[in-house]
Amino acid sequence: MDIRIIKSTTPSQKYRPKDSELGFGKYTTDYMFLMNYERKKGWHDARIVPYEPLKLDPAAMVLHYNQQVFEGLKAYSLADGGIGLFRPNKNIERMNRSARRMVMPELDSEVFLQAIKELVLLEREWLPTSAGTSLYIRPTMIATEPGIGIRPSEEYLFYMILCSVGAYYPEGFNPTKIYVSNMYVRSAKHAVGNVKTSGNYGPTLLVSQEAFMKGYTQVLWLDAEELKYVEEVGTSNVFFFINGELVTPPLNGSILPGITRDSVLRIVKHWGLTISERLISIEEVADACRSGDLEEMFATGTAAVISPVGQICYKGEDFLIADGKTGKLSQRLYDEITGIQYGLKDDPFGWRVRIA
Ligand code: COI
User: Fold this and answer.
1) Ligand 1, atom nearest to 302 Cα
2) 293 CA distance to ligand 1 centroid (A)?
3) What pTM did the predictor assign?
4) How far is CA 316 from CA 186, 214, 223, 232, 280, in A?
5) Comparing C-alpha atoms, which of 100, 124, 103 is closest to residue 31?
């Protein structure tokens, strides 16, 4: 598809942060990608334009009933000076799965990838180069047709913005403190927990804020039916290393199928370690903490990468994990995944996609 590029006639007014100032999600770049959909015309008018506020009708359906899906992936500055993506087709597939669930139009995967490449290459000056930094890519689709009745929109906007980022958590790669929510849940089976839609995130803010006020970084979510089984941690999937077995909850419908989660499973199998996708109750985790069998716990996500957990609080009781330090397996996985992403290590799975 032909992507028109409309260049700004004035120099960028945006602040260029130093790599050490980045944090996560503050510094968007100069350009964005846009493409429109109408039922009769399909997707059309693919273009890259200067970053600016969107013009939306106040009755646009996304604003009222959350017909929205999004993704998150990163572009990495490779060790040899090139630019790489990590398994971008997985994000494209998931976005289309999310779109189907939300009755939204699918995107052509080649056009999607082409848009990512062209936008990242145009904005390559915004790609930071220090360890652990990247250009975060946020593809988003919203329902733009004005209408207050509840029905699927007939018009959509697909847009993509970029953001120079460092670590997601203020702790960086240092262990986080996690608060177990045994009152509120993130999602229920047969709802949309396995879909990347903004409606899954807003409702988590109340508990996250409560956890934050108590000194914790993130919330560990339990299942909606029994408040018994572990599902996710914060915006990430979760793993426990208990007595030599690496355990993560199975994708039961309410858990987001993370691409980093899938990568960890594949790497660990390749290493020949014991890995189980099985139900794990919060009581089993607490018991393993008490007995000292819980060797490590970590979260996985595109934004969070591999994020070790050093402490959890369940029903007022605090448990220290791996003495509050980064465990060996978490470190090994972080090194392996980031090694592949940044071109520092071999890529036995063919996950790195070089774009420059
Ligand atoms: C990601 O890990 O990419 C996410 O989308 C999580 C979050 C920033 C919403």
Assistant:
1) 2
2) 30
3) 0.97
4) 20, 11, 19, 20, 20
5) 124
CB-based contact 347:341 (threshold 8 Å): no
The per-residue pLDDT for 64 is: 97
Residue type, 126: W
Task: Quickly count: other Cβ atoms within 10 Å of residue 41's Cβ.
Answer: 10
Residue 313: pLDDT over 90: yes
What is the spatial distance between Cα 28 and Cα 182, in angstroms, rounded to a whole number? 36
Instruction: Tell me which residue has its CA closest to atom 6 in ligand 1.
Output: 235
- Domains, the chain, ranges and CATH? 4-165 (3.30.470.10), 176-341 (3.20.10.10)
- Pocket of ligand 1 contains residue 303 by CB under 6 Å: yes
In this predicted model, what pLDDT tens digit does every residue of 21-33 receive, in sequence order? 999 999 999 999 9
Give yes or no for residue 310 CB within 6 A of ligand 1. no
Residue nearest to atom 8 of ligand 1 (CA): 303
Establish whether residue 339 lines the binding site of ligand 1, counting it when its CB lies within 6 angstroms of any ligand atom. Answer: no
Model confidence at 171: pLDDT above 90:
no
CA of 27 to the centre of ligand 1 (A): 16
Quote the tokens at residue 131. 């360890």
